[in-house]
Amino acid sequence: MRHESLYLTDIVEAADHIAQFIAGVEFQTFQTSEMLRSAVAQKLGVIGEAAAHVSEELATRHPEVPWPQIVAFRNILVHSYFGIDWDVVWRAARNRCRPCKCRSLASSRRNSAARQVATQSERAMSQRSRSSREPNRAGSLALAIRRMGQLRRERDAEAA
Predict the structure, then answer these.
(1) CA-CA distances (angstroms) from residue 17 to 11, 39, 93, 151?
(2) pTM of this structure
(3) Which residue out of 37, 74, 103, 146 is catalytically annotated?
(4) Cα–Cα distance between 154 and 43 in angstroms, integer?
(5) How many domains does the chain have?
(6) From 41's CA, which of 19, 27, 72, 121 has a CA 20 to 30 Å away?
(7) What residue numbers bound the domain in which 57 lies?
(8) Given 17, 61, 62, 79, which residue is catalytic?
(9) Is 79 in the active site?
(10) Is 74 a catalytic residue?
C-alpha cells in the first residue's frame, strides 16, 4: 500500500500540472481544445482519486478539507463524461489550482514574499467565493488542494 504522503504529493503535483496546462489560456480556447480539457479533467481525476485514499484518521484530523466533495467531484468527472460541465471544470482549474503553487512557495521559510502572495490570493478567492450567487463547487476543490499541500509538507517535516 502506498504511503499517505505519496497521495498528498499526487494531489499537489496534479494541481501544479493543471496550472501549467492552462497558463495564458482563455476559456474559449479551453472549451474548444479536446486535448486541454482531457488533460485538465485527468489531473482533476487524479486529485479526487488521491483524496479517496487519504486515511480516515487524516481526514478526521482535518475536517476543514471537504474530502467527500472532492471525491464526489472526481466521480462525476469520471462517470459522467458526456455530461461534464466544462465551465465548472474551468473554474476549478483556473481559480483553484494556481494558488496551490503559491501555497507551496509560501511554505518555504526562505521565501516570505511568496507567503504574502499566497495569503493575498487566498483572500481574493475567499471574497470571490462569498460574492458568488451560485454554489461554488470549484471552491471546495481549491481549499482541499491548498490544505493537502500543507498536509504533505507537514508529513514530510515529520518524516525528516
Answers:
(1) 10, 9, 10, 19
(2) 0.64
(3) 74
(4) 23
(5) 1
(6) 121
(7) 4-159
(8) 79
(9) yes
(10) yes
